[in-house]
Design a protein that fits this description.
The complex is a heterodimer of chains A (about 325) and B (about 675). Chain A has six helices and 18 strands. Chain A folds into two domains: about 160 residues, no CATH class; about 90 residues, no CATH class. Chain A is about 30% helix and about 30% strand. In chain A, a hairpin with a 6-residue loop joins strand 6 and strand 7. Chain A starts with a helix and ends in a 5-residue tail after the last helix. The longest helix of chain A is centred in the first third of the chain and has 25 residues. Chain B has about 675 residues and is α+β, with helices and mostly antiparallel strands. Chain B folds into five domains: about 170 residues, no CATH class; about 140 residues, no CATH class; about 130 residues, C8orf32 fold (Roll), CATH 3.10.620.30; about 40 residues; about 80 residues, no CATH class. Chain B has 24 helices and 18 strands. In chain B, helix 11 packs across helix 14. Classes of the chains: A alpha+beta (about 325), B alpha+beta (about 675). The interface between A and B is large, with 51 and 64 residues.
């Protein structure tokens, strides 16, 4: 109840944004444990000064209290004006870790000894001097499939004296994709050209048949270039292969009938990874979405993202 | 697993320096083993940091702790009390440094440091000590700033800058709190009982032994009169009376069977008869003044005859002097109203009269014979006193600070043989003669005179003096036999008297008191600072606070004080916030940016407003449109600016920046032409 009210209040006060500049609306400040100890010492010195009728000890006590008040201003200042911008993200499998980048931007003044953390993770410490930018990657445990919004990031600083901590809870508008956790399965949910359900045995890369050469076009994969011919002065050409009938697979969601949705996606994920490892071309068909045949890292990435985002549209 | 936050290396230097600086006063004042301990710890740490040695284990640390406790016990005989406590806490401070590993240890160390700073102020209270402690606080704060900035790129120097700025900003707040936070009476009684006797008045007097205190220029107390001060010959600061003489030594005494309640009234309980009698005689002119005592470690205070006070923390004694409730260990200020005429209210009967006439059974027979002779010749006491003073004036008595030591019948030997002495000898023998002649008399010890400095008097140890009081016509009358022999001593003070004497005689006796004029002036000036420090800082107590706040706020009520405190703190904090959070101040602007801004502002002043984001070329074009004559100069400046701005190797060196500034000034000049 209370927690929800707190979250709602936070969401109203500090809404999600691509970029956040910390100001008095967003910064909270309270003494640290050491700050309370420091105040206790000042109080003890006050009683000492009173009892010994020693005005200088009282003066020391007052100076310490004055320093505490000044420390409030300086601690606040250290955080105020800091800009946080949502940076890139690195996806991962469910159960593993993804990470997102937070870019710290200092305009005119430096911001020192900042602690960035969310959830229960150990804090990352960073300092940015005036006019600098610094990207900090923060890990995010991936607990469920899909596009995850990172929780509120706690930006905290105790600089300069450690008597107070100023903090803000920043919600950056960025996502981290969680791919399905791959689940091994011997049956490939695919339809190849020859309707074969089994995957071709893990053949060598040479299982494809050489078809011919064509002229190099910028953008062609360098691994496909006929380097030997180039060395013999035949110009820059690309080798073309005939894809074997058994090699071109259509991974299909609807072939995994009777299994729960997440498990289907996990199996598809496994095959996406496996086929990519074998550098075999594949296509992917999901309800309402699909991916044209292709191969390589790019294809793998797209397939995984498609699996991750499945079901999010509705 | 809890992560141990290490103390960054750039903070270690400040921490070490803070430890050395805060411990230093105690190393100087305290027992020798404290320096040894700190040296041991610092050496050990240095070796650990070079990986030559391991940090000590628990056993070694425990042994060192025990050794510190035992050594404290050895040095002071106890573990409590300010001096032993200071030694102990300074020892702990050093030991804590030895086991410093993580940030948490550093925090503990710094907290101990604040206490060590406070102990410095227990024993040193001058303006310099205060400055020193502020310096220590800056170092401790720099250490804090260091341990809270774990970035390895941080440099040690910046911590000191941060700390100095923060302490400086905290000072106005501290001043407000100092003035406005209500002073309350001590919650329980504590005083610094150092056990060391200091030079000063002693509670007995043995003429014949040369007293050292007359040569010391140490300050005894200061007096500030409301209105003009009495002339030097009237400045008899009474401190003690000696009523009992055993043949060699004069001592304080009470009549047998009396206790402190019969002779002291501290304002609590019903006033005794003698106090009421004095109060009834409280009329006629009065001196009003404020005395600030230097620490004397004694209870007696100094004031002119028949001192009345508000009896707050001090008491009036039956022999017309003031006594503090506790030994004066720090500087103590008190206000007095002295009414000379109130002496008429004094009484002397019974046991007290017997005491004031008492002499040893035998001894000093020649003096007794002389007194008996005077008694036969003069029936009037006053005439007898004058005869005695005449005797001192006419016989070849000689005032000197270095009398020959005498033993045995000291009064006889002085009166008839040596005839050389200073105030104690004269007061002692005169009082003896009076008692022998049947006139109640006592010796008074205190100070006489005082040197004027600004609007107050300084009374120094060499102004210490002793004189007599005799009971004439129902009251105590001051008689100073020294004045009969050396009137200069009373009129001019000891220093001047000695200076005259040495000028007359050409001997070096007064050399100790002669001072170079420049040094003297400097010393007077330093004393003036010290006086105001004592008065406004150290002596700022309940009463002074009430007076000041009454002047500032009109009336002193808790609400007003609270409001004033709140208002002043908020005001200063807001001003500080403006200063600290001002964004214009924390531009890390490049030299070139500053140069550009200066030119933009200069053009703005001459009526050419330019947007903040203007480029150098845009600026040049705008200038050329407005002041065609300055086109060449503007182009000149722009080309050089761009040359410097687009070079690859960072900020341009100073010489080139100056060159750019010259071109800027040339451009401004061209605008006029």
């Amino acid at each position: 109840m209370v927690r929800n009210a707190w979250q709602r209040w936070l969401d109203r006060r500090l809404p999600r944004a691509r970029q956040v500049r910390l100001d008095q609306r967003r910064i909270f400040i309270l003494p640290t444990g050491y700050g309370y100890l420091y105040l206790l010492v000042s109080v003890l010195l006050f009683f000492g000064g009173i009892n010994y009728e020693n005005n200088l000890i009282l003066g020391l006590c007052f100076l310490m209290i004055g320093l505490f008040v000044v420390a409030i201003l300086h601690t606040y200042r250290n955080l105020s004006g800091l800009i946080l911008r949502a940076g890139g993200g690195r996806s991962g499998f469910v159960g593993g870790q993804g990470s997102v980048e937070v870019v710290l931007i200092a305009r005119r003044r430096g911001h020192r000894a900042l602690w960035l953390r969310w959830l229960d993770q150990a804090a990352q410490e960073a300092s940015v001097e005036g006019g600098e930018e610094l990207g900090v990657w923060l890990n995010l445990p991936l607990t469920r499939r899909g596009a995850l919004r990172p929780p509120r990031l706690r930006v905290e600083s105790r600089y300069p004296l450690g008597l107070l901590r100023a903090w803000s809870l920043v919600a950056l508008d960025q996502v981290c994709l969680a791919w399905p956790r791959p689940q091994e399965s011997s049956d490939c949910p695919a339809r190849g050209g020859d309707r074969e359900r089994r995957a071709a045995p893990t053949g060598q890369n040479g299982s494809e048949e050489f078809r011919g050469l064509r002229g190099y076009v910028p953008g062609d994969a360098l691994t496909q270039v006929d380097w030997k011919g180039f060395a013999r002065g035949r110009g820059l050409n690309v080798k073309l292969f005939e894809e074997p009938a058994s090699g071109r697979l259509w991974l299909r969601y609807d072939l995994l009938e009777g299994l729960p949705l997440e498990q289907r996606l996990s199996i598809l994920c496994y095959w996406v990874l496996r086929l990519s490892d074998e550098n075999r071309p594949f296509a992917l068909t999901l309800p309402g979405a699909g991916l044209a045949p292709g191969r390589g890292g790019e294809q793998r990435q797209r397939a995984l993202d498609l699996l991750a985002r499945h079901g999010e549209g509705d | 697993m809890a992560r141990i936050y290490q103390v960054p290396s750039h903070a270690r230097g400040w921490l070490t320096l803070a430890i050395i600086a805060t411990s230093l006063p105690q190393l100087i004042d305290g027992p020798w083993w404290q320096s040894l301990l700190l040296l041991l710890v610092l050496g050990w740490r240095a070796l650990v940091d070079r990986q030559r040695l391991l940090l000590p284990g628990r056993v070694v640390r425990l042994a060192l702790l025990l050794a510190t406790v035992v050594a404290t016990w050895q040095s002071f005989g106890r573990l409590h009390g300010p001096e032993a406590g200071t030694a102990l806490i300074t020892g702990l401070f050093a030991l804590k440094y030895l086991e410093l590993v993580g940030k948490r240890d550093a925090y503990v160390l710094i907290v101990l440091g604040y206490f060590v700073c406070a102990t410095i102020l227990l024993f040193h209270q001058g303006p310099l000590a205060a400055l020193y402690v502020i310096g220590c606080l800056v170092l401790l704060t720099a250490s804090l700033a260091g341990i809270n900035y774990s970035d390895t790129h941080a440099r040690g120097r910046q911590h000191l800058g941060v700390a100095a700025v923060m302490v400086l900003q905290a000072l106005p707040l501290a001043a407000i709190l100092f003035v406005l936070v209500p002073r309350v009476a001590p919650l329980w009684n504590m005083h610094l009982d150092s056990g060391q006797a200091r030079t000063g008045m002693s509670d007995s007097m043995s003429p014949g032994q040369v007293s050292r205190l007359t040569e010391s220029a140490e300050l005894a107390f200061r007096v500030q009169f409301d209105g003009p001060a009495p002339p030097p010959s009237q400045r008899y600061w009474r401190g003690l009376t000696y009523g009992y003489f055993d043949g060699t030594t004069w001592r304080q005494a009470r009549p047998p069977g009396w206790d402190e309640r019969d002779t002291l009234y501290d304002g609590r309980g019903p006033a005794p008869d003698w106090y009421r009698a004095l109060r009834n005689a409280d009329q006629g002119p009065a001196w009003r003044y404020r005395v600030i005592m230097a620490p004397s470690q004694q209870r007696w205070l100094y004031a002119l005859a028949v001192p009345f006070t508000d009896l707050d923390g001090l008491a009036l004694a039956r022999d017309l002097r003031l006594v503090a409730d506790a030994p004066v260990t720090g500087s103590l200020g008190y206000r007095v109203r002295s009414v000379p005429a109130a002496g008429a209210g004094a009484t002397l009967d019974g046991a007290e009269r017997t005491l004031m006439l008492g002499l040893p059974e035998q001894g000093n027979e020649r003096a007794r014979a002389l007194a008996a002779d005077w008694r036969r010749r003069y029936t009037d006491d006053r005439a007898l006193v004058n005869a005695a003073l005449g005797y001192f004036r006419e016989q070849p008595f000689f005032y000197t600070l270095e009398p020959p030591p005498v033993a045995g019948d000291t009064v006889d030997r002085f009166l008839f043989d040596t005839r050389r002495g200073f105030c104690e000898h004269y007061a002692s023998s005169f009082t003896f003669l009076m008692r022998a002649a049947g006139i109640p008399a006592r010796v008074v010890a205190g100070y006489q005179g005082g040197e004027s400095n600004g609007d107050y008097l300084q009374v120094r140890q060499y102004d210490a003096h002793a004189w007599s009081e005799v009971w004439l016509a129902g009251r105590w009358v001051r008689v100073d036999p020294t004045g009969a022999v050396a009137p200069d001593r009373i009129e001019l003070g000891l220093r001047q008297a000695m200076r005259n004497r040495s000028a007359d005689q050409g001997d070096g006796e007064g050399a100790a008191f002669g001072r170079l004029p420049v040094l003297f002036q400097l010393q007077q000036w330093a004393d003036y600072v010290d006086f105001n420090w004592q008065k406004w800082v150290l002596g700022y107590r309940q009463e002074e606070q009430r007076d000041l706040l009454e002047r500032l706020l009109g009336a002193v009520t808790p609400t007003r004080i609270a409001l004033a405190l709140l208002g002043a703190v908020l005001l200063v904090t807001s001003l500080l916030a403006l200063l600290v959070l001002n964004r214009r101040r924390d531009q890390p602007a490049r030299p070139l940016e500053r140069e550009f801004r200066r030119l933009r502002q200069a053009l703005g002043k001459r009526g050419l407003g330019l947007p903040e984001a203007v480029s150098a070329a845009g600026l040049e074009a705008a200038v050329a449109r407005r002041w065609p004559a300055a086109t060449a100069a503007a182009g000149h400046w722009r080309r050089y600016f761009e040359h410097l701005a687009y070079r690859e190797d960072g900020d341009p060196p100073r010489a080139e920046r100056l060159q750019l500034a010259r071109r800027r000034r040339a451009l401004i000049r061209a605008l006029r032409g």
